[in-house]
């Protein structure tokens, strides 16, 4: 069964500079490389899922600047349906300024056209949501649009994976409506910013899948906490690792894998992605994942 995934989220061009170390405040360093690479959390997760064999629909916006058309073509090259990607006149495409150094990265995001993914844009795409096994969401589009997407998914019995990144406070009713929530440890602290939300977490821990980098993913199986361990690889670039995990996790869920299997699958694709340069360019194909798993049986 082919997994059917709809992703509503950001579409950015990543402006990536590589240097030996991060500059101090006010300091100028010479970089060793510069590249423009398709990115955005939404587009990244869509590409990750598509490379794993899913039938993926992307819903989002690009600008009418020189970055917009290449980003749409990049999605199409990855066999992603783009009829729900809208160019916005007079608005720049979203960008992310990324510095890669010391086996890590820093990122500044300028939303641009992503702020034009309005609730109306989401409503126009209800059929795609209805026809999906999983709806995958993040926080690089307006919050009211995320809420509308969750409402439509609930109306059409479509499972929702919410990756609450970049971290921001959210309404409790949003957490109540989604099926799976995938924060990292930092994002979880920001989500649980009130006693009411902490109480919700305690009573609904089976919804939360807390990513911990190379350590793996922590979730609650109804009786106890389970840490699904990560995989040791030679790290080249961590950009997009979380997005790759979410793409893999969503595909596994849509294919009917157990929660532990879905976490394991997400860990594998995330680990393979950091062993290559770039967010989307480093994401593994399904065949690579299967070979990796076969070697560890």
Structure characterization notes:
36% of the residues lie in helices and 24% in strands. The protein has 297 residues and is of the alpha/beta class. The chain has one domain (4-295): Ribokinase (UDP-N-acetylmuramoyl-L-alanine:D-glutamate ligase, 3-Layer(aba) Sandwich). Strands 1, 4, 5, 6, 9, 10 and 11 form a 7-stranded parallel beta sheet that branches. Helix 10 crosses helix 11 (286-295). The mean pLDDT is 94.
Shape: globular
**Continuous helix count:** 11
The third-level CATH topology is UDP-N-acetylmuramoyl-L-alanine:D-glutamate ligase
CATH architecture: 3-Layer(aba) Sandwich
CATH homologous superfamily title: Ribokinase
Radius of gyration: 18 Å
Task: Report how far the terminal alpha carbons are from each other.
Answer: 24 Å
**Percent strand:** 15-25%
- Uncertain runs with pLDDT below 50, 5 residues or more? none
Query: SS-based structural class?
Result: alpha/beta
Q: How many structural domains? A: 1
CATH class: Alpha Beta
Q: Share of helix among residues?
A: 25-40%
Q: Return the string of H and E elements.
A: EEEHEHEEEEHHEHEHEHHEEEHHH
Number of strands: 14
Mean pLDDT value: 94
Main pleated sheet? 7 strands, parallel
Subunit structure: Homodimer.
Organism: Filobacillus milosensis
Catalytic activity: D-ribose + ATP = D-ribose 5-phosphate + ADP + H(+)
Family: Belongs to the carbohydrate kinase pfkB family. Belongs to the carbohydrate kinase PfkB family. Ribokinase subfamily.
How is the topology of this model organized?
Elements: E1 4-8, E2 12-18, E3 33-39, H1 41-51, E4 55-63, H2 68-77, E5 80-81, E6 85-88, E7 94-101, E8 104-110, H3 119-123, H4 126-130, E9 134-137, H5 143-155, E10 159-162, H6 172-177, E11 180-181, H7 185-191, H8 195-203, E12 209-211, E13 216-220, E14 225-229, H9 241-254, H10 259-274, H11 286-295
Parallel strand pairs: 1-4, 1-9, 2-7, 4-5, 4-6, 9-10, 10-11
Antiparallel strand pairs: 2-3, 7-8, 12-13, 13-14
Helix pairs in contact: 1-9, 9-10, 10-11
GO molecular function: ATP binding; metal ion binding; ribokinase activity
Binding site for K(+): 237, 239, 273, 276, 278
Protein name: Ribokinase
């Amino acid at each position: 069964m082919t997994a059917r995934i709809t992703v509503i989220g950001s579409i950015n061009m990543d402006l990536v500079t590589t240097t030996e170390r991060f500059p101090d405040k006010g300091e100028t360093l010479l970089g060793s490389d510069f590249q423009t690479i398709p990115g955005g959390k939404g587009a990244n997760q869509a590409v990750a899922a598509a490379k794993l064999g899913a039938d993926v629909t992307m819903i989002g916006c690009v600008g009418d600047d020189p970055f917009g058309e290449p980003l749409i073509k990049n999605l199409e090259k990855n066999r992603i349906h783009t009829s729900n990607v809208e160019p916005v006149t007079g608005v720049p495409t979203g960008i992310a300024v990324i510095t890669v150094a010391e086996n890590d990265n820093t990122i500044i995001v300028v939303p641009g056209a992503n702020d034009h993914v309005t609730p109306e844009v989401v409503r126009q795409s209800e059929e795609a949501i209805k026809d999906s096994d999983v709806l995958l969401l993040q926080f690089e589009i307006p919050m009211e649009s995320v809420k509308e997407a969750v409402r439509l998914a609930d109306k059409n019995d479509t499972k929702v994976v919410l990756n609450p990144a970049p971290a921001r406070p959210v309404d409790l009713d949003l957490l109540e409506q989604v099926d799976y929530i995938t924060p990292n440890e930092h994002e979880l602290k920001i989500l649980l910013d009130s006693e009411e939300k902490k109480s919700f977490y305690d009573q609904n821990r089976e919804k939360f899948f807390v990513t911990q980098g190379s350590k793996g993913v922590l979730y609650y199986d109804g009786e106890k906490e389970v840490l699904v361990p990560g995989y040791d690889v030679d790290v080249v670039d961590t950009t997009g690792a979380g997005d790759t995990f979410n793409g893999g996790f969503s595909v596994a869920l849509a294919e009917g894998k157990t929660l532990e299997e879905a976490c394991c699958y997400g860990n594998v694709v995330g680990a393979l992605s950091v062993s290559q340069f770039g967010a989307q360019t480093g994401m593994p194909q399904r065949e690579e994942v299967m070979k990796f798993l076969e070697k560890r049986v």
